[in-house]
Amino acid sequence: MDQPQKTPAERTAPDKHPAGLYVLFTTEMWERFAYYGMRALLVYYMTKSLFLPDNAPHIFGYEAVKGGLEWIFGPLSTQALSSQIYGFYTGFVYLAPIFGGTIADRWLGQRRAVVVGGAIMALAEFMLMKQSLFFPALLMMIVGNGFFKPNISTQVGNLYPAGDHRRDRAFSIFYVGINVGATLSPLIAGTLGENYAPYGRWGFCSAGVGMLLGLAIYLWGQRHLAPDNVMRRAASAEPAKVEPLTRDEWKKIGALVALCLLNIPFWSVYEQQGNTLALWVDSNTNRMILGWEMPATWYQSFNAIMIVLFTPVVLAFWRWQDKRGREPSSLAKMATGCILLGLSFLVLIPQARAVAAGAKATLLSITACTAIFTLGELYLSPVGLSLVTKLAPPRMVSMMMGMWFLSSFFGNYLCGYLGTYWEKMSHESFFLMLMGLACGAGLCMFALLRTLKRAIGHGRPAAVDV
Fold first, then answer.
1. Which of 113, 163, 176, 343 is most buried, by the most CB atoms less than 10 A from its CB?
2. Of 421, 383, 413, 386, the residue nearest 400 (C-alpha)
3. Are 334 and 370 in contact (CB under 8 A)?
4. Cα(159)–Cα(136) distance, rounded to whole angstroms?
5. Which pairing describes strands 288-289 and 285-286: parallel, antiparallel, or unpaired?
6. All residues at 6 or more sequence positions from 391 whose CB lies less than 8 Å from its CB, including other chains
7. Span 198-224, mean pLDDT?
8. Which pLDDT value is given to residue 458?
9. Residue 4 CB contacts under 8 Å (≥ 6 apart), including other chains
10. What is the greatest pairwise CA distance in the chain?
């Protein structure tokens, strides 16, 4: 009988991570460079160039999209229309992975799905260089991300055997890769798009080049990756069987669904950094530094830079807590992340009063706000990704990863809907609303902590993991 194939992590020294982690890290870094480079420009591109009266009539599908949204929501200003489109686009980017994950689990395999998704996204970025193709390009970005996003993340989990405590740390390292890309993209793509005419074109071009680099690295590093689901089935001597889900598996899936619902307010508030907070920085913040005005798109790098800087500190803090037997469970970390996100807006509320009185907000205030909600993100997002790979039944892990991103779909759409109130409410009231949503989600998580732990399973290992 053939011996079970070892995972890359089992072939690596216990205190090290397999080389495949760094292949996935770099691939994801360039994909996020492409995505966040485009996102850094998106709201500015729509409000400052694309939807101006001279340009809008030439955009394929513009009248249909605008008419449909106004039929539902009533007349929309350029800012409100842009916010709605931003919310729908970023929302559907996170809805598509449930379909891409299901296709990969059943037919395509995780490796092929990543290649297909990356190629489609690269093409979409180049399509954005032509204004008339704006809406078809957004659709292509959504489809490509649906194939790419869930299947790159699940391959990180594939590198490690069940119960390997390096997995949580691996996802935090992987998350740094996401944010190195997100750091570079506004500085490069944002600067090119903002400062070189026509507005946006060369920023989108650089994002497409970044995606092609990521694909090249992924194809080069195939030998370092673990076999994906389709490869394992092909290598198995046993015929594939569709096993019904057990009672314990249904409980774990139910707990993940509950967490997805509780994550929706988190993402609706967090994603404001690409929407209303981008407008706040552009119009209401003093960006002068020693006589030089910082480009507004550079704000989109703040969160990503802080993730790269804060991740080692947060991991060291968790290790310190673990040695003393006081490291919070994954669920408690996620609840803490929501509370931190909400509290970050306490910094902006007095600044909103100053702006209402005719002053400008300080750059330090938006920096402090971003620092606090970045800590909140580190407590929630990578921990949630790791939790999915631990709890999802192996035969449907990519689909469950896609379902996890479903909370981002609803959260991102809600982000866009909330953004339509930016011009209707005082900024102080708007920030208070965001704080209430995020803190409310965190308090609900804490209230349901014991119930969710019982659903997931609460043995000794589970006490640490969940």
1. 113
2. 386
3. no
4. 36
5. unpaired
6. 252, 253, 255, 256, 400, 456, 466
7. 94
8. 47
9. none
10. 78
Classify domain 19-233+247-288+296-465 at the CATH superfamily level. MFS general substrate transporter like domains (1.20.1250.20)
Q: Which residue has the tokens 């996003």?
A: 149
Over the stretch 230-256, which tens digit does the pLDDT of each residue have?
A: 777 776 655 556 677 777 878 888 888
Q: What is the distance between the alpha carbons of residues 94 and 406, in angstroms, rounded to a whole number?
A: 6
Rounded to whole angstroms, the Cα distance separating 96 from 334 reads 24
- Residue 333 has a pLDDT of 92
Best CA proximity match to 46, nearest among 119, 139, 131:
131
Q: Tell me the pLDDT band of 461, cut-offs 50, 70 and 90.
A: very low
CB 146 within 8 A of CB 1: no
pLDDT at 171: 83
Residue for token digits 């509950």? 258
Q: Report pTM.
A: 0.78
Tokens of 352: 């909103």
Q: Which two tokens mark 235?
A: 């290598």
Burial (CB count <10 Å: 0-12, 13-18, 19+), residue 274? buried
Nearest to 335 by CA among 253, 251, 265: 265
> Quick one: which of 177, 231, 157 has its CA closest to 400?
157
